[in-house]
Amino acid sequence: MALSQIKSDGNYLNEVHEKLKLLLNKKNADPDEITNLLDNLIALFFDLKRRELEPSVNVQDAVILVSDVLRIVKQDESFKVAKTCQIWEQVLQLPNVNLTNQVSEQLIDWIVEVLKHENHLILTDILSCLAVAVNFKEVKQTKGLEKVLGSSGLIVNKLKEEQEINNLTVLILKILCNFTHCSGEKDWTSVSKDVIDTCIIQFIKMLEQNLNSDPINLNLLKVLILCFYGLENTFVRFTSSTVAHLESIFGLARYYMLFGIAGQPIKYIPIHPSSLPFVDLPLKLDQTKNPKVRKKRPPSKVQSKNRDSNSEEIGIEVHFQTKNKSWTKNNIPISSSDSELSDSDMQSHQRLKEAQSKVRSNALKMLSAAFKFCEQRSVMGYWSAFLPDSSQGQVYRHSLVTPILKDSSVKVRCSALVALSSLLQTIQPTLAMAAYQENRTGAFIPLSQTLAETVIAVQRSLILSVSAEQSASALIQIFKCLAVAATVFPYEKLPIELVSKTVQVCTPFLENKDPDVKVACLSVLRILFCTRSTNSNIVQMFNDEKKGKCWLLEHCLALIDGQSGFPLTLECLLVIGEVARSNIRVAQSYLQHIVQSVCRKLLTDQDSGIQIRCAKALALVGASILQEMEKEDNDQFISRDEAIQLWIYIIRYGLADVLQAPSIPPLKAEACAALATVGSQIFECLPRELRILFVTLALGCSVDADAGVRAASIRTLGFAVTFNTLNDDASFLLDSSEKILPLLLDSNLLVALNASWALGNLADTLDKDKNSLLEEMPRDFLSNLIQAAVNASQGPMKVRCNGIRALGIFVKIVTNVPTQGSETAILLEKAISVVAKQATTGNFMKNRWNACYACGNILQNITLLTAFSHWMDKLLDSLLVVFRSCPNFKVRISAANAVLNLKHRELLSNNYIKIWYTLLDSLANSENIDDFSEFQHHETMCRQICNAMCKLMTLMTKDDLSQLQEAVMKYYDVCSSHFGKFLKSLLPEQLEQVIEASNHIRQLGQPIGSLTLSQNSAVELFTELLVESSSNFYPLISPPQEKRCVRVSSGIP
């Protein structure tokens, strides 16, 4: 059929399929008929691919059709096999193609059988088809693929047989690369690890075999590019498979990142991991000859006149100096006369040069992936091989800085900068140990000094590259790398000149023509200033000595007041907000200007992104003001009157208009978040109409259709219920609860989480003044709150903790004791059951901690627990389970705090002795730590258990002494040790409970002779714990004048 007919007939695919079925049913189909069918399919799919698929054609029908083609083409029919491979290659490249597991298995099995015939004429078509097919996840997961790509696979064997680099080698490596490329967020664990290992080995082998090959062979360059691309893919998706080969991979990357650069000789050596800072030793140079690379000499007092002024000013090492400030020379030396080369020669030379640079770029991209995706502990052994060393007497060695400074390709320099940034971020904990000693003496070089010299070399190299770079894209990447360096380098322990030179070099680029360069430069200055805001020397660099003002803030404010582009305005707003947050002292004189400019930009700018950033900047300013208001008056940089005036302007001329107008939801959410930073001290001083407006806006936004706005507004209400002028307003609290309770059941997790937090704050407010507030509330107000808290405590995991906290407080403030079987009694029964269950179950320890906290609150409601004594048993049982089995020591500390709320011995009944035995056993077994991270809380837990024991001693009766004597005898040594540490840790004002316990124990022993022998022994043991353990520290707890220790126990003398 002619191609014109194919184009006009949308049903042609179906007709071909019907014809194919007829051929399948024939036992001896006509070969010419099959060939004609295959030719038409090639023409059809080629045309569909060119026209990006005809709408009338179903791509899945095409897949079914070509899968049936595999059944009519025999493996020994070479030309038909080639046509079939071409058809499959075109179909698989159509958009939105999906393969089933069955079709994938069928295709791979067919290819395996075809490859076994070893027909070299059609091998290229087969491999091209396979290269496209392995892009699909279903094909990667097929079992038959191991016969092709496994360690003894058909294709891998062909790769081993090839003696020279040719097109077939390139095609096989392309298949391996496509197999390792796993895009998207799919689960790739089902991909064969053996095939991945084979791919890695073949990539490394090809790179090692061609170390000394001719760099002008284009096929060789394609092979190198594909190998590094394949290794990059394995680092991204199959990092664990690369760990065994890191030595070779890193060594190859260091070799090939300088591939093709004239005058940069380097030998390939696998890089072995080392715990030492550097593994390379300086080479001994023959002093009778002029070495090509000079040793670094200490700077002389008189600077050379011929030294480049820029390098002299920055202090760069000699081997980093360059005569030209731009990279305009080619890597490969060519004739000085362009007329000597024809146009075709120049084009060939340019292609060769680009291919060589792509090899270096791919090697560096692979390094970036390795640094980013490998575990930190894996990278720690290799970082020294990729960073420069500036220590005295060291020979210059190649590092990531070398291509940054010397490569003529912009892409390579950018790739090297990305790799350097990734490495610095990965080894940040190690770099934090750097500390420079200017006048160090002695032969021993500490690790901190070595790290400092490395950091200095990196920073100086980046400074030099800024001065030499002319490409805007490379400049942006340099500034991004400097921003990373500013984040990870400990400048407070390094020469301050590093920061001053960085500021000095970066500042001129604030006036660069490229706005992206301005943004990148501004981000470096922002990080330098805001992350080191406590360093007076660094802060002084951003102040104009003559005017005494911050030039960085003035520059950003000028850009905001003017007409700047979108990214530059965003960065300026970020600078303003971060400066206000990190150093209010510097921003204090600009706050009025900042607030006015940001509010004006918020209301006048038409770009929603800039408006959102304005709202975020106001939130940072508000948070900084709130932090100042919490300080003492003498320590404040902003007076309360100034803060009030600023907030009046922010609400009237900024946030109110945004929240009342039909704004976009993200902007409203940020405006609500900014409103939440007012604070109680400022709110109570605002004019009455603004306080009413604040409440109206917060309540109104809580019913917004957007979840983000609801979440921000309910968080604002959570702050508002704690304000001094609102926490006694029954009407406001009632309105707030009506907004909070429905949002606890919101489908959006963030809304429900913020609502539960607001409910907890509302509970704290009611707890402070429960009597007067509850009298003004409706009768069912507290019951509704308890029911909502019960539901929240059983809701999503992250919502439960605040719901449990609120539930404990609500039950605590119940004053009216319900009758047995009433709805209120059933509700309270359910509430206590929920609290007890949450304390004893679950792996989310924050919930269990809050449940123990809630138990402590409920135990304070003596009236309620007296009427329902079985509730007391349920709460105490849950606390004892925590002491016995909870692996988290912070939860046990919370349980011990809950025990401190026990006040009446008669309510404990038989539980009293059980509590004692559990606490003693918990103290004795406290050394059994399964998780070492809990060790930091061990001492605190033991002290709190001892404190709980002191509380129990104050409730002890004479009848309890007989039952406790044997237990105390058993655990006496453990108790004595921990009580000694506990009493030693107390301050004098914290001894009240210990003194009360000591006095109560003495009273139990009065009058003398009124106790049995075992009771008297128990009194003596408790007295020893409290007196002997503390007598050396606090004489306030003095022992009795006549002390006689009698220990009587069955079987114990």
UniProtKB/TrEMBL annotation:
Q: Where is the composition biased (Low complexity)?
A: 335-345
All copies of the DUF4042 domain together span 358-536
Pfam families reported in the protein's UniProt record = DUF4042 (PF13251)
Supply the InterPro entries for this chain. Answer: ARM-like (IPR011989), ARM-type_fold (IPR016024), DUF4042 (IPR025283), HEAT6 (IPR052107)
Q: Where are the transmembrane segments?
A: none
Name the domain of life this protein comes from: Eukaryota
Instruction: Provide the residue span(s) of the region labelled Disordered.
Output: 289-315, 328-347
Which PANTHER family does the record cross-reference, listed alphabetically? Answer: HEAT REPEAT-CONTAINING PROTEIN 6 (PTHR13366:SF0), MALARIA ANTIGEN-RELATED (PTHR13366)
From the Swiss-Prot or TrEMBL record, give the protein name: HEAT repeat-containing protein 6
